[in-house]
Amino acid sequence: MYLNLLSDNDKKYFLAIANRIVNIDSLIDDSEIELLETFKNEMKLTEVDYLPELEFDEIVDSITNDAVVHKIVIFELLYLSNIDEDCSAEELLILEAMRKKWEISDEIYDELQTFSRNLLEISKTILS
């Protein structure tokens, strides 16, 4: 939804985190794979295989230090985490670590979470 506003580098790092979120709990749902493909198309990316293997903290630190960028990344990852209606504890740990590292307030995080869930419900209504 807002991923086209990210820089090319931020898009790559976002997709690397998104891939980790999808694969972290070993329960990969078709809706998660479809959304990853949608993300790639929106950002006009093909793959992130060319990214060097980085630790999670290195990836997060590589994203532009900007509050709007951080909110976009968190929002889109929250949407991804909720798409299968089963946001796992592992997924929440990743999101919480990013929230803390980027000093996103509980209030803003909760608003982003609510917005992502509302958007998911709207999408289901439209597509059903």
Note the main attributes of this structure.
128 residues, 0% strand, 6 helices
Task: Characterise this structure.
α1 (8-23) runs antiparallel to α2 (30-43) and α4 crosses α6. The model has no long low-confidence stretch (mean pLDDT 89). The chain is built from six helices and no strands. The longest helix has 22 residues, at 106-127. Helices cover 69% and strands 0% of the residues. By secondary structure, it is mostly helical. The chain has helices spanning 8-23, 30-43, 56-62, 67-82, 89-101, 106-127.
Percent range for β-strand residues: under 5%
Classify the secondary structure makeup into a structural class.
mainly alpha
Q: Identify the overall geometry.
A: globular
- Specify the helix fraction band: 55-70%
Mean pLDDT: 89
Describe the sheet with the most strands: none
Distance between the termini: 20 Å
Low-confidence stretches: none
Oligomer: single chain
Q: Give the topology string: H per helix, E per strand.
A: HHHHHH
Secondary-structure blueprint of this entry?
Elements: H1 8-23, H2 30-43, H3 56-62, H4 67-82, H5 89-101, H6 106-127
Helix pairs in contact: 1-2, 1-3, 1-4, 4-5, 4-6
Summarize, please.
This protein is mainly α.
